[in-house]
Amino acid sequence: MAVQFSSTQRAVAVGVASAGLLIGAFTLGAGRGSAAPGTAGGATGNAALTATAAAPAQGGTRITVTGTGNASGVPNQLALSMGVQTSGTSVAAALRQANSAVRSITAVLRRSGVAAPDIQTSGLSIYPSYSADSGIPNGYQVSEQLTITLRRLSVAGSQISAAVHAGGNATVIDGVSLNMSGTSTLMAAARAKAVADAKAKATAYARALGRPLGPVVSMSETQVTQPYPVPEFAASGAARAASPVPVHPGTQQRSVTVTVIFALG
Fold first, then answer.
1. What is the DSSP string of 194-230?
2. Does residue 166 sit within a domain?
3. CB of 155 within 8 A of CB of 52?
4. Is 13 part of any domain?
5. Helices (H) and strands (E) in the chain, counts
6. What confidence score (pLDDT) does residue 2 get?
7. Least packed by Cβ within 10 Å: which of 99, 133, 165, 201?
8. Are residues 103 and 119 located together in one domain of the fold?
């Protein structure tokens, strides 16, 4: 028996069929889309786990230690800081006296064997002098300073005394310092001791940990100069230059500290 549908019924049937087809297509696409991210996520997770597991093998276990090495030597040169101070009723008069005293000092030092490059002008100052109850200058003072390197300690005392005598009552000595030149051999000895100290410490730690000591990964150095200072002294006037100034070189120390990173086997 033939079944007939009205136009309204046919329209409803077509709409239902179309909706079913759309729902089926959406469900199929969603299923495929969800599978792809899952695969990508799994690959990423595996890569991360692999990198984490490999990290210890690449970096390894390390130990950081410091080592110190010292080496001492005898200073072989002296740096002398000295100058003159003069006063006068005018700037010109005070400066003239100071210049004359400095020329005398320089001449004596040159005659005693000090090379010209070892005599250096290091300061000059000119300033007025005032009385206690007046704001008007009643004179002027001039100060000139020299830095002198004395390279023969055996005669340095005599050279200082001669310089003080040449400058007369205007002479002022600010201080001295003893130094060493050519310290490369001394520094090499200090470095060798510092490295040996660091390696000894690392070996002891590795033994305590039950691990063999591996190669050096990195090393850095810090230098520390520890001179034994010479007390400063001042002299004013030729009366203190009656005899050579005693010079006792003593010793100076060079210190090197290294920071070393070792690998552990």
1. HHHHHHHHHHHHHHHHT--EEEEEEEEEEEEEEE-PP
2. yes
3. no
4. no
5. 4, 7
6. 45
7. 133
8. yes
Span 238-254, mean pLDDT? 76
- pLDDT tens for each residue of 30-77: 444 444 444 334 333 332 222 222 334 345 899 999 999 999 999 999
- Contact (CB, 8 A) for 176 and 230: yes
Closest CA to 258 of 232, 228, 224, 231: 224
Q: Report how many domains make up the chain.
A: 2
Q: What is the CATH number of the domain that holds 166?
A: 3.30.70.2970
Question: What's the predicted TM-score (pTM) here?
Answer: 0.63
- For residue 70, the cross-strand partners are 255
Three-state DSSP state, 6: coil
What mean pLDDT is predicted for residues 203-214?
Answer: 95
Assign residue 202 the CATH number of its domain: 3.30.110.170
Q: What is the pLDDT of residue 49?
A: 24
Residues 134, 138: Cα–Cα separation, whole Å = 9
- 100 and 160, same domain (yes or no): yes
Token output for 214: 């591996």
CA distance 77 to 158: 14
Same domain? 260 vs 131: no
Q: How confident is the model at residue 115 (pLDDT cuts 50, 70, 90)?
A: very high
Give bridge partners of residue 219 from the DSSP assignment.
Answer: 260
Q: Does any domain span residue 159?
A: yes
- Statement: residue 228 has pLDDT above 60: no
